[in-house]
Amino acid sequence: DIPRDYNAATWFIDRHLKDGRADKVAFIDADGSHTYGQLADKVNRAGNALKGLGLHMENRIAMIMLDTVDFPAVFWGAVKAGIVPIPLNTLLTTGDYGYMLSDSRARVLVISEELFDKVEPILPDLPMLEHVVISGKNAHGHTLLSDLLAKAEPKLKTAETTRDDVAFWLYSSGSTGAPKGAVHLQRDLPATAVHYGQQVLGIREDDVTYSAAKLFFAYGLGNGMTFSLHVGATSVLLKDRPTPEAVMKLLKDHQPTIFYGVPTLYGTILADPQYRRETASTRLRACVSAGEALPEDVGRRWEERFGAAILDGLGSTEMLHIFLSNRHGEVRYGTSGKPVPGYELKICSDDGHEVPQGEMGELVVRGPSSATAYWNQREKSLKTFRGEWTHTGDKYYVDDDGYYRYAGRGDDMLKVGGIWVSPFEVEAALISHDKVLEAAVVGETDAEGLVKPKAFVVLAPGETGSEVLKEELQAYVKSKLAPYKYPRWVEFVEALPKTATGKIQRFKLRGTLSQ
Ligand code: 3SK
Q1: 21: Cβ below 6 Å to ligand 1?
Q2: Measured from the CB, is residue 218 less than 6 Å from ligand 1?
């Protein structure tokens, strides 16, 4: 139970000093190891540095930061001072940053030196932005974070916040429209760390974790930062892009016990037969997947080859982390598992009524980490946050054993011959074929004006698209699913369009019929 007077930094940062973890390693990044004691010092200095720039409680700062220890230092320094950090996706365009910086009215931007070029052209157009602070060595004419930290006081008074104060925001990308700032409270981080991190994943103090999803994603923020800080574990951070090569090297070098990935990464690693448990981490005891539903076949093959099951789950930026998940010892691949303790789920029809078990509908969730609203977006907030219930926009049904099965985004479903077809089901069938790496399925209109599935296929390395292969894949899907679900068209592509969080943007593939 979280007391009314509460600041999350007391629990996630300062408690470790009292609990004797000052010398324990909290983070490992490109510069080496950082203990809990060093982290607490850096957090205090960061909070004081922000106050020294003229920031007060409830002011906002934007963070466009790669995964190094500077990220948790700035994030927690702000939270401890009652200032609201807004981590932004580091992969966005200048235009996206212009929108988010002006929408959020951040007064300070902390940015990694490598990313500065992306914001430089828009700085003159951001009147609310007073300071740019650079993490790294090249100040680009602004202020270096390292200089501010060196000069700042190492003691910081914790701001007198309550559990219901705004702690941080995260922008939610969605498949259409402008990004929306999801407003999260001080109470939200401990809720996800307890309910998912401890009660489902079972993270412990002796774990060493690595998340391929970066800290700026809601998924990565919990995986790579708050879950390990919650139990006093160690998290390895990778600044670079999580290519299969980089990830496998990190797993080999640091031997983590928990690995958090996304389906595409699991699939790409599996496509290279040289990778196996012995070339990765022999200590791996749990793997996690989220971002999009994990194809059944990928889960099975990973477990066989790497000797650790993947817990596939569903979360959202709005709910902060995973609220529906598979459990150790009860994994059912091809499903998102069962509700995480502390969260209640309903499957609803379009008119908002709960549907009988087995029927498909929209997944709606109630739980302790829901954002309060989208900043400055009244209509969108009203549609998503309805009283205690948050609408996910995901279609699900519950099978006879109580496992939740993903059936696509509400707007991605296709009706073929009057029957709903989940593009995900057809994709999963395609991906289980040896020659297929990734697939996306959308509805296309045929000569009769009827909607039929069309597949975009990324082939496994070394494979080449051909008419013969197209027919082979069509026959294969027909043999695995109800025949009406097979893709009438198959297009071979180099890559699929995806959101920053790895979700396939099927809307970008619609209307591209080129038989
Ligand atoms: O996409 C997901 O499944 C997810 C999981 C955890 C946190 C955030 C997100 C978007």
Answers
A1: no
A2: yes
The predicted complex's ipTM stands at 0.97
pLDDT digits (tens, 9 = 90+) for 74-106: 999 999 999 999 999 898 889 889 999 999 999
Helix %, strand %, coil % of the chain (to 5): 30, 25, 40
For the entire predicted model, the pTM comes to 0.89
**Mutational pocket test of ligand 1: of 321, 326, 505, the residue with most ligand atoms within 8 Å of the beta carbon:** 321
- Digit-coded pLDDT (tens) for 454-477: 999 999 999 999 999 999 999 999
Residue 515 has pLDDT above 50, yes or no: no
State how beta strands 60-64 and 25-29 pair.
unpaired
Could you tell me where the DSSP H helices lie in 88-217? 94-104, 116-119, 145-151, 188-192
Contact 72, 145 (CB under 8 A): no
Q: Are 394 and 406 in contact (CB under 8 A)?
A: yes
Q: Is 290 in the pocket of ligand 1 (CB under 6 A)?
A: yes
| H-helix or E-strand spanning residue 209 | strand 208-211
Side-chain-side CA neighbours of 233 within 13 Å: the count stands at 26
Nearest alpha carbon to residue 226 among 198, 206, 253: 198
Q: What percent of the chain has pLDDT over 90?
A: 82
Give CA separation, 289 vs 61, 80, 361, 465, in Å: 30, 31, 23, 29
Residue nearest to atom 4 of ligand 1 (CA): 315
CA distance 217 to 322: 12
Do residues 140 and 92 make contact, with C-beta atoms less than 8 angstroms apart?
A: no
Contacts 24+ apart (CB under 8 A), 128-133: 128/101, 128/102, 129/101, 130/53, 130/54, 131/53, 131/107, 132/108, 133/49, 133/53, 133/108, 133/109
Phi, psi of 477 (to 5 degrees): -65, -40
CB atoms within 10 A of CB 401: 9
Ligand 1 centroid – CA 218 distance (Å): 6
The reply to whether ligand 1 has any atom less than 6 angstroms from the CB of 314 is yes
Nearest CA to ligand 1 atom 10: 316
Q: Using the 8-state DSSP alphabet, how is residue 483 labeled? A: G
501 lines ligand 1 (CB under 6 A): yes
